[in-house]
Amino acid sequence: MLSIPTVTLNDGVAFPQLGLGTYGLRGEEGIAAVVAALETGYRLLDTAVNYENEREIGEAVRRSPVDRAEMLVATKIPGRHHGYDEAIQSTTESLAVLGLDWIDLSLIHWPNPSVDKYVDTWRAMIDLRERKLLRSIGVSNFTEDMLTRIIDETGVVPAVNQVELHPYFPQSALRAFHAERGIRTESWSPLARRSELLQEQVLQELAEIHGVTPTQVVLRWHVEVGSTPIPKSVDPDRQRENADVFGFALTADEIAAITALERGRLWGADPDTHEEM
Ligand SMILES: NC(=O)c1ccc[n+]([C@@H]2O[C@H](COP(=O)([O-])OP(=O)(O)OC[C@H]3O[C@@H](n4cnc5c(N)ncnc54)[C@H](OP(=O)(O)O)[C@@H]3O)[C@@H](O)[C@H]2O)c1
Question: Which ligand 1 atom lies nearest to the CA of residue 213?
């Protein structure tokens, strides 16, 4: 079994440096994929109300021989559940669908600034953490201004901000802000899902040099820049390949060469304008 190292979040929780994305993992095939990932050594499972697979994730947690206390189950509050009471209700429902006694990490899935309720949602999450129903609380797709606002209005710094991040969109300025404020960066679509990223020559060359695959070079780059990637794979062999990135290191020049692939967001999901319910 692989051992995935952890970092300490600003609330003291040990958080894996790599986790499993679960978007699209549904039904028996999805449950089997998550059980296989736990067997391989994954401990962080990233789901969301909107992935409609919390039931499957909870079932995999129960079927796995891995101790529940060793795993971190992360879910997300959707846009339609923004607001104080709505967020409490959303979490109660997630706990019921997951069939779990607590959620290790809850995130606000999208800020939806035109609705202007993410601060109320955040207040509910702070209270749910007090009640020990949530262990860690964070956000997703928040900009520096949005992070500053919830910190200023509540005094509570998110443990995590999960954002689009891959070599085509390295988010250097936001990562620097996170580092200043003690927020852990998490990378969604870390492999730049279905783009031509893995065919980039620089990745092919570095894979050759280090005796690994281009995918492993990309995931190691996330680790080196201080972000937790959550690659999704249904396949146990690809899951193992993705998690096996702690036995080699990239040099500063190699990291810079990968970061130089920057060209911007791939799917136009700018949190100032893109909203999801
Ligand atoms: N917070 C947000 O707004 C947000 C948005 C998007 C995603 N997410 C989270 O981030 C997770 C990851 O993002 P993602 O699923 O969009 O994209 P991703 O992890 O970058 O890429 C997943 C795709 O890559 C393939 N793949 C995985 N490992 C591979 C390997 N070793 N070699 C070749 N292909 C490989 C997968 O296919 P197979 O399954 O067939 O291996 C799948 O098609 C999601 O599952 C979700 O949990 C969050």
Answer: 31
Phi/psi region, residue 4 (left: phi>0; alpha: psi -120 to 50; beta: rest), is beta
Q: Alpha helices, DSSP H only, in 71-171? A: 84-98, 118-130, 144-154
The rounded distance, in Å, linking the Cα atoms of 252 and 249 is: 10
Give 127 Cα–ligand 1 centroid separation in angstroms. Answer: 32
Residue (of 56, 130, 34) closest to 100 by Cα position: 56
**Distance, CA of 206 to CA of 192 (rounded, Å):** 18
Selecting among 51, 84, 118, 168, the annotated active-site residue is: 51
- Taking Cα atoms as reference points, which of 226, 198, 193, 196 lies closest to residue 212? 198
- Positions of the chain with pLDDT lower than 70, given as ranges: none
Residues across the chain: 277
Q: Any catalytic annotation for residue 51? A: yes
193-207 tens-digit pLDDT:
989 999 999 999 999
3-state DSSP assignment of residue 155: coil
* Shortest-distance Cα residue to atom 13 of ligand 1: 189
- Ligand 1 atom with minimal separation from the 216 CA: 31
Give the pLDDT confidence of 38-65 residue by residue, as tens digits. 999 999 999 999 999 999 999 999 999 9
Q: Please, which residues have CB within 8 angstroms of residue 267's CB and are 6 or more apart in sequence? A: 164, 189
| pTM score | 0.98
